[in-house]
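Feature request, filed as a ticket because there's no other form

It would be nice if the structure record came with a short human-readable summary line next to the tokens. Right now we just get the raw output. Example of a typical job, pasted below so the devs can see what we mean:
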Amino acid sequence: ILITRPDGAVFYSNDKGVTWIDSGSRVVPPASPKFKAPQLIVLRDGTIVAVATCGNLRIWISTDRGKTWSKDRSLDTSSYGYPGSWILDDDQSILLPYCASGRAPNRIYLVRFQINEARTGIRLLPVKNGP
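Raw output as currently delivered:
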């Protein structure tokens, strides 16, 4: 699965990325702000979480392999975003570094969250120190 910018188009590959097929699905509606720096996280149960900058740092959730997407949920309304990598802990929490703006001077932030059991939203968690 691949999500493109600036429209959040969802593509699939059946040949390990040699060719890609446009699914016709879009993460964001056509009139949305530009969809930038998308990151995808696939949870154990197949739930897909898209994290991107779309005005600010936001997430979208898909429970049907990317065919449909939830309404966006803000992760940080005060920051531009540009999310970095993520780590899925044993508890399926997502550790996400991101920056405050698209240019210097800048600040780096870190948020840890889980997708709730109903797959309708998130739960913020403390960032752990050490093992």
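Something like this underneath would help us a lot:
The chain has one domain: 2-125.
The chain has a mean pLDDT of 87.
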